[in-house]
């Protein structure tokens, strides 16, 4: 007597418990797939990014220093305070570029952390809707593999271009009125009033 | 008081008793459903509270300062490591000036410290964002399960109510039978002394007065 309603009630509760169990299992699968994204992983990613970018900085620095060395040697300024100042400015630029590389690697890793977290959240959201731990495990594994693959580091631009424009060209102009050995530097259309017989540049 | 009347009273009493018992049973079952649902909700709340408290511990001002300081220190350490890495092997042809070198290193140090401070805030933002994401995901799952559990409450209550319908029907039948018996008992003296009327019922539903009924 009255077993119909009780049976339906028990069935509802049983389905609810089964759904909870499936979601718990799916969460376990997702967490297992994303377990590798720990601080060590991100630190390795950061170091790999730095290692990929740093040689480019070194190459460009060497070219810039050679250019500066030739220029100073031509003027007999290798052993001068002007040469030391320019060498110091180049060192500062190198330090800046190294800092930028470190920051770029950190930013890339932070973006990766955010993407991983967002993807994990999306997978959990889908699991809550589907309560399908098998699909959740498959998608989690696919996503984790995608993030684990090494990403390409884009070639860096001309890192020392600004330094060459500011320091090297100004030194050339002030001392000899010659154009810069760097092709990127250009004279302004009108000479500045304080210049006497030579070009003056407003770049600072 | 005739036997039929007594039987009617007894049946009515039995019907009322069964109905009352059934109502009490239904109420008990519904209360049980509500108790179980509340217990389940409390269980979810017990799971959610530590997650929320953990998030609060990750988002206070002290943690913010720690995040900023940690990010700053890590950035400084990375900058120093990179600055100390030899960039190229060949020695510079430009003669170094001790004063210029000291000034250069000082300015590099200042610039790195400023950059590291900014990185500290960047780390704070990231750690807070990640903590919020984690808490949101954990609490979201618990909230989803709790919501799904509470969504079935009306169906559970309906099921508890419906499971007593058979007994309620028995009670109702007994009550009706008792009423009928009571009516029969009250009318039976008249019925025994009357003759069956052959007239049709009136519009008001009352039978026409039977002939020879003495009323």
What can you see in these coordinates?
The complex is a heterodimer of chains A (204) and B (215). Chain A is mainly α. Chain A folds into two domains: 12-159, no CATH class; 166-204, no CATH class. Chain A contains five helices and no strands. The longest helix of chain A is centred in the middle third of the chain and has 50 residues, at 81-130. Mean pLDDT of chain A is 82; it is low at 183-204. Chain B starts with a helix and ends in a 22-residue tail after the last helix. Chain B is built from five helices and no strands. Chain B is an all-alpha fold and 215 residues long. Chain B is rod-shaped and about 145 Å long. Chain B has one domain (3-90, 100-193). Chains A and B meet through α1, α2 and α3 of A and α2, α3, α4 and α5 of B.
Low-confidence stretches of chain B: 204-215
Tell me the span between the first and last alpha carbons of chain B: 21 Å
Strand residue content of chain A:
under 5%
| Rg result of chain A | 31 Å
Major pleated sheet of chain A? none
Largest interface: A-B, 59 and 53 residues
Count every helix of chain B, treating DSSP H or I runs of 4 or more residues as helices: 5
Helix content of chain A: over 70%
Structural class call of chain A reads mainly alpha
Number of domains of chain B: 1
Helix-strand pattern of chain A: HHHHH
Largest sheet of chain B: none
Shape, per Cα inertia axes of chain B:
rod-shaped
Strand content of chain B: under 5%
In DSSP terms, counting alpha (H) and pi (I) runs of 4 or more, how many helices of chain A?
A: 5
Count of folded domains of chain A? 2
Helix content of chain B: over 70%
């Amino acid at each position: 007597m009255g077993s119909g309603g009780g049976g339906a009630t028990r069935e509802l509760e049983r389905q609810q418990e089964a759904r909870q169990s499936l979601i718990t299992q799916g969460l376990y699968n997702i967490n297992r797939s994303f377990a590798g994204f720990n601080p060590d992983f991100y630190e390795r990613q950061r170091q790999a990014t730095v290692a990929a970018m740093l040689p480019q900085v070194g190459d460009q620095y060497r070219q810039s220093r050679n250019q500066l060395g030739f220029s100073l040697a031509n003027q007999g300024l290798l052993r001068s305070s002007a040469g030391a100042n320019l060498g110091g400015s180049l060192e500062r630029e190198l330090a800046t570029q190294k800092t930028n590389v470190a920051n770029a690697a950190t930013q890339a890793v932070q973006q990766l952390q955010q993407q991983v977290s967002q993807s994990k959240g999306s997978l959990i959201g889908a699991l809550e809707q589907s309560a399908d731990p098998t699909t959740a495990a498959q998608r989690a594994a696919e996503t984790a593999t995608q993030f684990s693959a090494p990403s390409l580091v884009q070639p860096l631009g001309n890192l020392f271009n600004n330094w060459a424009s500011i320091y090297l060209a100004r030194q050339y102009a002030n001392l000899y009125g010659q154009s810069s050995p760097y092709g990127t530097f250009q004279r302004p259309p009108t000479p500045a009033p304080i210049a006497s017989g030579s070009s003056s540049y407003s770049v600072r | 008081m005739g036997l039929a009347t007594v039987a009617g009273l007894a049946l009515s009493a039995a019907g009322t008793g069964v109905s009352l018992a059934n109502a009490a049973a239904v109420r008990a079952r519904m209360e049980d459903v509500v108790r179980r649902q509340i217990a389940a909700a409390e269980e979810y709340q017990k799971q959610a509270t530590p997650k929320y408290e953990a998030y609060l511990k990750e988002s206070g001002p002290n943690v913010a300062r720690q995040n900023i300081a940690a990010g700053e220190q890590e950035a400084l350490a990375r900058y120093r490591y990179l600055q100390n890495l030899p960039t190229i092997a060949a020695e510079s042809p430009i003669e170094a000036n001790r004063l210029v070198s000291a000034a250069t290193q000082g300015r590099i140090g200042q610039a790195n410290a400023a950059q590291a401070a900014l990185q500290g805030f960047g780390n704070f933002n990231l750690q807070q964002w990640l903590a919020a994401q984690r808490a949101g995901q954990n609490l979201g799952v618990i909230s989803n399960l709790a919501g799904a559990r509470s969504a079935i409450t009306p169906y559970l209550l309906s099921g508890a109510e419906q499971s007593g319908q058979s007994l309620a029907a028995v009670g109702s039948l007994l009550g009706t039978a008792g009423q009928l018996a009571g009516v029969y008992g009250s009318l039976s003296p008249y019925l025994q002394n009357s003759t069956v009327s052959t007239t049709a019922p009136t519009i008001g539903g009352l039978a026409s007065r039977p002939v020879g009924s003495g009323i």
